[in-house]
Amino acid sequence: MSKKLPVRTLSELTLAEMAGTIVGSIGTMVQTSLAFGIPPDYTLLMVEINSYMDNMGATSNIYEDLLRVILCSDSLDASMRFCCLQMLLNEGVQCLVTDIFPLAYYERILQVIAAQGRGLRQLNMKGVWVKEECMCFMFEIVKRLPHLTRLTIPHIANDNLLKHIADYSRCMRQLDISGETDITEIGIEYLCYGECRNHLTVVDIGSLGEENICHTDVALLLQNLPNLATLKSYSFVGRSLQYIVEKKDANFKCRLVYVHDMETDATTLDAIVRTCPRLEDIYLDSPEAGILEKLCSVKLRRLKLYKFSAYELLGLAEHNGKSLYHVTVIKGYGPLEIDRLVRSCPNLIDLDFYMMDSLTFAGDSSFTNLQGLEILSSPIQKPSLRRFICHTTTLRRLAVDAVTFSDEDISSMVIEHDLYQLEDVWFTSAPYLSIASVEILMDRCPELQSVGQLSGWALTPDDVTLLRGILKSCNSSLVLNTYQPRRKARHPVSWIVMRRD
After folding, report:
1. Entry's InterPro entries (predicted)?
2. Strands 258-262, 281-285: pairing kind
3. CB neighbour class for 246 (10 Å; exposed up to 12, middle 13-18, buried from 19)
């Protein structure tokens, strides 16, 4: 039987109780004020609650945890969440995620963070899209938060904001200014010569698949940020490196460990291999035919390919597959023999196939460490799929969009091959699997945490209700999913499909 629901820890219970008490106090005060026809006095309540927490010895971690729980709550009104932000943010809080707020709250949120968040080290404002009229408050935040090491502000950056970051953020290590922004070469230059240039290791810039930041501007970052290891989101890193080698410095070397490049040709890939001696993670989108062999000398840990030759992948794997731990392949042309991957990449932990022409598996060898397997929109015959799963007993996560397994198939697979480590099973369409398959998975897979997507199985709503009743009565932690899309998507490809096809 799958695991039981764990008993909530005392700290979790206390945190939930305290958060509920704070929210309840605010709600009671608001209702009382409205009943008497007077405006709520939030200031007095804030003083009282903070005084109580100080007297009880509340630490900065408690304030931080309360903010995390309250701000991410979907059930709380924006006014309630904002009031808690005002009440709980103080100089002891080091990490803050604002989450999503309506436009009307943006200015007030920025003012509160600037006034009360001096101790913040990490600030994530993904849910607050600052408009031009509020940008002055963003400038104040950067000025007043000198200890920031990680700042996440997608879609809102401009040259003036980058100037303030360059002038005041001496400790910045990770900066997310991705998305559609108003950044030009001027803003990039500010960042290149600012206070944090020697500390920045991760810069998330640009939009996936779009060159909204010129590759020559990104080249400035590569040349002037000596410890830059990752340029997230940017899809033309190879062009930037090629530009540096051809126009600026033929002997240039950088510290990049991850590179994403689109429509890579032989010259560009040569530049990538030549300038990135620490490279261990690469994503090539639509590489030119015949160039993957240039990666044979690189000890890659992660490889992601889109629109490529399956034959070239196998050739590359035979040369340096032993160093690979994670492989994601999308829209590979030609048949792919998984047997050859098994022989060439014995250490793989994750293997994901999306929109492949065809997959086959006919051997007896197996991955000894494979934990995650996804096969989506990639035809594979039932005998091949069954054989592959049965030979990979280390699997924790298994996702296949369409299977023709019967209840007898599932029963023999899990009983005869001891798939004891399975945690997540996801078959989008499994028309021949009934309640019996769910029951055998529940019984024989002790680590199982979720099964889905049951609306595509041969189960009635009554079957699902019965199973959930059994799980509840047994205090099981197993979750039965009956909806789309997948609850967990580790390698989303929708942006590629929408953009290119």
Report:
1. LRR_dom_sf
2. parallel
3. exposed
DSSP three-state, residue 237: helix
And the tokens for 376? 């989506």
Residue 378, classed as helix, strand or coil, is: coil
DSSP class of 132: G
- 103 DSSP assignment: G
Q: How far apart are CA 276 and CA 241, in angstroms?
A: 9
Contact 101, 82 (CB under 8 A): yes
341 is written with which tokens?
């991957």
pLDDT of residue 48: 84
Q: Which residues pair with 124 in a beta bridge?
A: 97, 152
Burial group, residue 162, by CB count within 10 angstroms (0-12, 13-18, 19+): buried
Q: Which residues contact 388 (CB under 8 A, 6 or more apart)?
A: 338, 361, 380
Asked if omega into 461 is within 30° of 0 (cis), the reply is no
Q: Region 127-152: what's the mean pLDDT?
A: 93
CA distance 143 to 445: 54
Helix or strand or coil: residue 97?
Answer: strand
Residue with tokens 């022409």: 357
- Three-state DSSP at 271 gives helix
- Cα separations in angstroms, 44 against 26, 51, 86, 116, 238: 11, 11, 12, 17, 57
Give the separation between CA 164 and CA 138, rounded to whole angstroms: 9
Q: Answer with the residue of higher pLDDT: 498 or 52.
A: 52
CA-CA distance, 169 to 157, in Å (whole number)? Answer: 15
85 in Cβ contact with 109 (< 8 Å)? yes
Question: Can you list the positions of beta strands (E) in 137-270?
Answer: 150-152, 174-178, 202-206, 230-232, 258-262
Nearest-angstrom CA–CA distance, 338 and 367: 10
Residues in the chain: 501
In the three-class reduction of DSSP (H, G, I as helix; E, B as strand; rest coil), residue 483 is classed as coil
Distance CA 476, CA 470 (A): 8
- Spatial contact of 312 and 336, defined as CB atoms under 8 Å apart: no
What digits encode the pLDDT tens for the residues 204-220? 999 988 888 999 999 99
